[in-house]
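hiii so um. not sure if this is the right channel but i have a protein structure encoded as tokens and i wanna go backwards to a sequence. like what aa goes where. can anyone help
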């Protein structure tokens, strides 16, 4: 499958807090921290050639804010990973935006929705 995007960026106001959240929440999806910089963290698959999700302090020096209507949907290998993503996110400062379950976006669309500690909305989806 061809790559459809180079990377996604989400803002944070607290990089250490974001690291705790994303390290835990992304692990069940097979994503690992691939880069740690003074102002940003990069996540991707272990064998990917570059990080695909960046969590960053805003470069303009103003506070990060959420994008209303923005939401990365991350691929989960199975329903257990969706559930583990949701549980880890809640255990590490995230908030619930939709418990794991089937959604009306397809016959096998199993997803969970959370917000990170900065308010960015994320989902994990398995289409089994």
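sure thing!! here u go:
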């Amino acid at each position: 499958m061809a790559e459809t995007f180079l990377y996604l960026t989400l803002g944070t106001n607290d990089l250490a807090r974001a690291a705790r959240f994303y390290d835990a929440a992304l692990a069940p999806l097979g994503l690992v921290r691939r880069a740690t910089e003074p102002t940003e963290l990069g996540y991707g698959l272990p064998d990917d050639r570059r990080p695909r999700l960046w969590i960053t302090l805003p470069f303009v020096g103003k506070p990060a804010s959420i994008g209303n209507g923005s939401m990365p949907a991350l691929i989960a290998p199975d329903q257990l990973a969706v559930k583990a993503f949701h549980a880890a996110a809640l255990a590490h400062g995230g908030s619930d935006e939709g418990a794991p379950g089937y959604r009306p976006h397809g016959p096998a669309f199993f997803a969970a929705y959370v917000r990170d500690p900065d308010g960015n909305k994320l989902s994990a989806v398995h289409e089994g």
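oh and The chain is about 20% helix and 35% strand.
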